[in-house]
Each structure stands twice: as C-alpha cells, then as structure tokens.
C-alpha cells in the first residue's frame, strides 16, 4: 500500500484513478495533466459570445452504481431527458434506430430495406460453431442486408469513423448498434408505429450548469490539491528506471503508472534501448480526428427541431454526421435562455477522409440544407475546435495489437487505460472511462480484476449484481 502511483491525464480515467486512491486513503500518488484545466475530451468551453460547448455530443448514462455515486456526490443539479434521436435522410426526419422505423421511408427505399433484412435473416443459418464476421462490413451485411447497408449504414459509418467498415473489426459492436428483430419491424410497418425505446441511453442526464466539463472540474476540485498538478506535460517515460520527465526537465519516480494519453502516444514516450521494438508498434493503431462546430442562434428552434436531442446525417448534403440541439440539454448552455438556442455539430477527418475548405461555413450551409437552421442570418455565434484524437478506430487487427502491447506495458507496471489509452471504443463512454481508472488502481493495490477493460461484454450487459457490488464512499478534504 506504499506504492508510488503516478497518473498521466486528468480526464475521466485519470480522475477515476485519483478518486479511488483518495477514497482508499492511499496518499502516495500524483496526478499530472498537461493542460491548464481538467476534463480532457470531456471538458467544456464558453465562447466569446457566452455560448457553452462540449467537446462533442456527450450525455450521461451509466452501467455502474459507483459512477453514479461519484458524479451525483460532486454535482448537485441535474436535468433528466428522454432521448429523442432522429435520422435525416430522404428529405425527412426518421426516428432512431432507423431499422425499427423504416415505415417512415419512401416506398421504394422501404421495400429495399425490408427485403434486405429478410434476405439477411434467411441466409443466417444457425451452426454449432458460427464463424465470426471478418470485418464490420461483414457484420453489417450479415445483420442488416444490402438495402440498409447501401442507404444508411455504409455512408453513415464512413462519415463517423472516417474509415470504411471493411477496414474495421466487428469486435467492438456489442450494445453500440441495435440488433435486428424482423418481426418487430414488420409489425411497425403494418401499424405505422414509431419505435424509439431501444438503447442504453434512451434516458440520460446532463448537468444543469457548466456542461459536461463541470462534472470533471467538480471531481478534480474534491481531490487533495497537493496530489494534483495541471500544466505539467510529460515528455518521456523511462520505463526501466520508472521515471517520467516533464517538459520543464523535472523527473518524477513511480512504482506504477496509470497512463490515459492515447496508447500510440504513450508508446512513443517510452525511452530505453530494449523498448525499441515496443515503440515501433506505435504506428499500427489508426484514429479519426473530430471537428466540433458550435452555432449559437437567436430565437427558438423551428418546430420540427424543437424537443429533439440529437440527429444523424448519413447523406452528403452536409459535412457533419451528428448534430446536437445543445440548448435542449440545458437552457444555461446559451447566454439568453428563451431568446437563443444552439446547435453543436461533429465532422470527422482522417487520411482516408480529408477535409477541404472552410469547415465552419460548410457546416452552416449544411445546417441550412438539412432544415436545421431556417436562415443563416439567425447565426449569432460560431465556434470551432479540432480534436486530433476523436474516435479510437477499431481497426482490423486491433485485438491482436492490444494483446501484444498491453501485457508488455503491464509487466513494466504501466497501465494504459481510457478512451484512447485502452483503445476499446466499446468501453469508452465517460462511465467506462472513469471505471477503467478505478479498476486499474484496484488491480495495482489490491490485485482486483479490471472487468471493464478486459470483459466489455460482461460490463455492457449491465447485470444488477455487477452494477451494485461497488459503492463510492467519499473522503472530504478539509
């Protein structure tokens, strides 16, 4: 219990690790964050015109009672929403998930999608040892058929990931994509019934004030100040000597390291001749970047947008793949509630999907094309940031890569965890990320199992016994 634990990064994973250490009464630890504020990809920014923005469309829904305890302990005021998500395609809004609501499509497209679903089901012959889909594209074709693949899943997933589904593994899918129930779909068509209840985030919460970043600022503020350092960028990891070097030149010793930076970046920081082979693996993983564009608008949302939470855009009439009606999450996300509203869009980028031109202007034009914004003159604020690391791509070969890298790092007492530290999109939500930090600490100090990182399917099944077995018991700082 006297191990010196150093945590790199004050995003949800690093803060989860620090929170667990403080809860356990372990004092020999240090949290280092290169930025001047905590939160990482879950931080928030207020622009020059007073509009608040997150780093993407984050919402709070949870698989863990421990996570719920942490955030409600430190953030008192929450707003709770019933998800209203839609897909914009064929010049109309269709409830999400699309496959359950193809009755809203034009007749020819509806027939194509239904026939594809039936064909896929008929071809899925049960066998004692079914073969795993080779790629995400293979998984799409097997489960959804040609119609939905052509019309929605292929173009939408390319817009999100900035890589083709054929270049991605299907290992990550789990609960992330609604499975197919053809009988239910046929019944929905016959009764012209909307079906919107699917998914773990059908109900979600959001802070009343301060955006998503307010959660992680509050968690950070309840940690011992002497154990936390902002604006402290690590530039090298001497794994043999168990030292980290800061940009300032200072070196700090550790017994165990919880690294929450992107895994490829952590590999590149390693120093030592015998680590050269491991460092060379840093070029294997691929990721997409994200452009977040915020539009602050005067007035109120048009009637067909009002009440909606987020919307998906598979077609090429706009550059963004998702738009969030951010003022709907909290009226305090705009400077003048009732007189202003806001939209937040996400645009992906990668070497396979480069962007050209002015992404902000293209977003405004796309918002007009898709009827989100009735008049560009209503836009009173424009905000834009580019996140180099947006999505950890589940590339073909990802599992083999992680199985080669992570055990070697753990032998060196380096636990690379989090959205990009672990490179598992299936456990990269805020609740997953915090718990990866918590469980890494338990593994280091108590020999506990890292259930979230190593057994995502078990965690995402959200069984009651897994959700209630660990509770948060805070220690308050005088």
UniProtKB/TrEMBL annotation:
GN (gene name): LOC106818898
Organism for this UniProt entry: Priapulus caudatus (Priapulid worm)
Pfam families tied to this protein: Amino_oxidase
Ranges for domain Amine oxidase: 13-414
UniProt protein name: Uncharacterized protein LOC106818898
């Amino acid at each position: 219990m006297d191990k010196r634990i150093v945590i790199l990064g004050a995003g949800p994973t690093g803060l989860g690790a620090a929170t667990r250490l403080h809860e356990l009464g372990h004092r020999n630890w240090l949290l280092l964050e290169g930025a001047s504020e905590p939160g990482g990809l879950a931080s928030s920014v207020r622009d020059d015109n007073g509009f608040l923005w997150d780093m993407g469309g984050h919402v709070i829904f949870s698989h863990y009672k421990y996570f719920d305890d942490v955030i409600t302990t430190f953030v008192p005021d929450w707003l709770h929403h019933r998800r209203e998500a839609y897909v914009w395609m064929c010049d109309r809004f269709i409830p999400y998930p699309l496959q359950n609501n193809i009755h809203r499509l034009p007749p020819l497209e509806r027939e194509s999608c239904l026939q594809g679903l039936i064909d896929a089901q008929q071809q899925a012959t049960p066998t004692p040892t079914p073969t795993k889909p080779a790629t995400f594209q293979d998984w799409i074709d097997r489960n959804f058929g040609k119609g939905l693949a052509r019309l929605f899943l292929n173009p939408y997933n390319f817009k999100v990931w900035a890589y083709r589904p054929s270049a991605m593994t299907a290992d990550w899918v789990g609960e992330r994509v609604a499975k197919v129930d053809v009988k239910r779909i046929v019944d929905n068509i016959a009764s012209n019934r909307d079906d919107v209840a699917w998914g773990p985030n059908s109900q979600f919460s959001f802070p009343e004030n301060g955006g998503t970043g307010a959660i992680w600022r509050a968690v950070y503020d309840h940690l011992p100040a002497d154990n936390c350092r902002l604006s402290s960028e690590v530039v090298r990891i001497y794994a043999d000597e168990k030292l980290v070097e800061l940009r300032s030149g200072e070196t700090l010793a550790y017994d165990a390291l919880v690294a929450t930076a992107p895994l490829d970046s952590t590999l590149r920081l390693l120093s030592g001749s015998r680590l050269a082979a491991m460092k060379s693996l840093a070029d294997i993983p691929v990721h997409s970047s994200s452009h977040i564009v915020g539009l602050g608008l005067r007035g109120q949302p048009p009637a067909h947008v009002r009440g909606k939470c987020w919307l998906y855009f598979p077609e090429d009439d706009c550059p963004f793949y998702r738009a969030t009606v951010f003022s709907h999450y909290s009226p305090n996300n705009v400077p003048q509630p009732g007189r202003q509203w806001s939209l937040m869009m996400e645009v992906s980028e990668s070497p396979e999907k480069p962007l050209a031109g002015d992404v902000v202007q293209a977003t405004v034009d796309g918002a007009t094309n898709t009827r989100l914004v009735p008049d560009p003159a209503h836009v009173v604020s424009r905000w834009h940031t580019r996140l180099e690391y947006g999505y950890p791509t589940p590339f073909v070969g990802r599992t083999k890569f992680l199985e080669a890298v992570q055990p070697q790092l753990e032998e060196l007492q380096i636990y690379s965890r989090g959205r990009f530290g672990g490179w598992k999109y299936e456990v990269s939500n805020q609740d997953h990320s915090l718990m990866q930090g918590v469980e890494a600490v338990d593994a280091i100090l108590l020999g506990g199992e890292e259930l979230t990182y190593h057994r995502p399917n078990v965690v995402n099944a959200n069984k009651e016994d897994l959700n209630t077995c660990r509770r948060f018991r805070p220690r308050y700082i005088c």
